[in-house]
From TrEMBL:
Keyword terms: Disulfide bond, Electron transport, Redox-active center, Transport
Organism of derivation: Lolium multiflorum
Residues of the Thioredoxin domain: 46-192
Any single biological process term in GO: cell redox homeostasis
Highest taxon in the source lineage: Eukaryota
Keyword Disulfide bond assigned: yes
Name of the protein described by the UniProt record: Thioredoxin domain-containing protein
Annotated Pfam families: Thioredoxin
Gene Ontology CC terms, in alphabetical order: chloroplast
Keyword Zinc among UniProt keywords: no
Role of this protein: Probable thiol-disulfide oxidoreductase that may participate in various redox reactions.
Similarity section: Belongs to the thioredoxin family.
Amino acid sequence: MANALCGNGCVAVPCGDLGAAAALAESVPMGGTYRAKSSFPAGRVALSAKPQPRSLHVAAAGQMNGNLTIGKAMRWWEKVTHPNMREVQSAQDLADSLRNAGDKLVVVDFFSPGCGGCRALHPKIAQFAERNPDVLFLQVNHEQHKSMCYSLHVHVLPFFRFYRGAQGRVSSFSCTNATIKKFKDALAKHSPERCSLGPARGLEESELLALAANRDLQFTYSEKPTLLPIAEAIKMEAAAIGGPWLPLPPSATHFLPQGSDDALIPSGR
């Protein structure tokens, strides 16, 4: 044989066959995990068992397939954000965020990724958020939360609702770039600092009940107990078995309208 195989796995090439062996070595692929090494033209061609870096394999595969690996593109509503801007994750998240906002003004921005008006308006909304760091901006993705938006009666985009402390919802409207003054005026009207005489109201009770009745949502709401008027409470007590325990003092009867159905029912004692 013209060539001899060495004990260490190397191919020994006679001096007279250097040209043919070199051409053969260049034409024969060395394999995906091996590379050819040669110290000088007259040396031996050795097969090294050292694997190539993984990045080289990925790059080579991409070049062979004609494809380029591109990272996930950032969505347009995530490109310009500020610490006081946050995307709502669920109906429970929206209700809790409004309830825990205290006296802070909360702007709820209903948008859709495919809404051209929403995309054009977003940079200006981000500017308002930057200029008003004390205002909380909540973003609701209509595509991800269609059922929730339906329960909240949001049927047009872009759409905004403003909430403030114990007042609850203070403004609700739709606007575009052409009518951005509507948003600016509402922000100027409701953003000044003020103290509420009570906890934050958040969503309307009818909205909470609609969300709780929506089987597509994981939302629980226990209706708050309502206080009965004093006249109704007295009627219920008088109609109870055994009547009132003690007769009502005459001074309390002037609170009831005379001659009406709310008048005190005599106990017969």
